[in-house]
Every structure is written in C-alpha cells, then in structure tokens.
Amino acid sequence: MLFLETLTFLIRTVGGLFVLVLLLRFYLQLARAPHKHPFNQFVMAVTNFMVLPLRRRIPAWHGYDSASLLSALLVQLLLLALVLLLNPLLPYNFASPQTWFGLLLLAVLELFRQSLNLLTGAIIVQAVLSWVSPYNALTPMLDALTRPFLKPFRAANIAGVDLSPLIVLLIIQVIQMLPLRLLEQLFLTQLQLAV
Q1: In sequence order, which residues have a C-beta less than 8 Å from that of residue 174 and are 6 or more positions away?
Q2: What is the pTM of this model?
Q3: In DSSP terms, which residues pair with 157 in a beta bridge?
Q4: Rounded distance between C-alpha atoms, residue 174 and residue 66, angstroms
Q5: What value, to the nearest 5°, has the Cα angle with vertex 38 and ends 34 and 39?
Q6: Residue 31 carries which DSSP code?
Q7: Helical segments of the chain, H only
Q8: Is 91 in a helix, a strand, or coil?
C-alpha cells in the first residue's frame, strides 16, 4: 500500500509538472511572448518531443497551438487513468465509454485549474519582481502572460499602488472555491456511476 501511495505521488507530481510546462508553452505562444527568450526556449526544448510529432498531424486552429493543448489534455487524461488504476479500493470499468467520458471531463477541468494556477504563479512572481528587481529578464515573459488579465483592473490604483494583481488573485480563488469544486464533484459522480 505504501508503495502504491509513493508511486501515485510520483506520477501526479512529475506528470502534473509536465502538464504545466505544456500549458505554459500554449500560453506563451498565445501571448506572443518573445520566442528567443531563454525561458521560452527551455519550455520548447522540454516539450518538443511530444508536441512536434503531434503538430504534423494536428495543425494550428485559428492561430492557436492546438498540438500543445492536445498534448496537455492527453497527458492529463493518462495521469487520471493511471491514478485510478493504482487505487485498489475503487475498481473502475475502463471498458466503459462512460468511464472515459468522466475522465475526459475531469481532465479538461484539471487543465483549467492548472491554467489558473499558472496565472496565479505568474502574477505573484511578477509582483515580487516588480518590488525587488523590476528589470529582471523574466519581466517581459510575465508581462505577456498576465497583461490581458490585469488590464481590466488597472484603474484600481490607490496612492500609486496597483491593486489589479490582488483583484485578479481574489477572482481566481473564488473560481477555484466555487464553480470548480462543484464541477469536480459532478464529474466524479459521473465517473462513479460508470463503475
């Protein structure tokens, strides 16, 4: 049992980090972040082995990097299936289409949650860097990722202090606490009905 818990932890951690990097690739391209930036180059190098072969079969859709997004979805779906397979207490019927539909819904929900986590991290790092090192090399990348979300709230400025990061972080927390948890419970119920 301890071995299965450790294995589940490793699969979730390593797989979750890879999903985050795949999502980061998608969002960096969507935000038109500087391609030659070392951080962007790192993200591309880590994910090329999966994204490039998929891109040959799945072209970009309306300028969106659909191969990166589909890669993230496939890895997340595989992660969920592996975690369920390693759980001996709840046997799931993987031959049932209803099980895979429930897993797909959970995978999409988890990608949305991870996207919110990426945005949260980018906002926090950007806020800290603006105080300690405003001309850091990561600043253009972070600005490209966060600008569309912070811009509507830029008017929230009190005595020269920009409160837009705080407002966006509060909105993210509310989204994660209410609709995401309710949807997750609904999708888990759907998955359990397939057993």
Answers
A1: none
A2: 0.90
A3: 162
A4: 28
A5: 80
A6: T
A7: 2-30, 38-57, 66-85, 97-132, 139-150, 164-177, 179-193
A8: coil
CA dihedral 156, 159, 162, 163 (to 10 degrees): -60
Q: What is the pLDDT of residue 72?
A: 97
Look-up: residue for tokens 């920009």? 162
- Supply the pLDDT for residue 193: 66
Amino acid at the residue 145: L
CA distance 55 to 66: 8
Nearest C-alpha neighbor of 82 from the set 69, 97, 72, 92: 92
For the chain, 195 residues long, the average pLDDT of each consecutive 10-residue run is 88 96 95 88 96 91 90 96 82 80 94 96 93 87 92 86 92 95 88 67
Distance CA 22, CA 41 (A): 13
pLDDT for 15 equals 96
- Domain boundaries along the sequence of the chain: 2-193
Distance CA 141, CA 32 (A): 9
Q: State the Rg of the chain over Cα.
A: 19
C-alpha span between 14 and 12 (Å, rounded): 6
Residues in the chain: 195
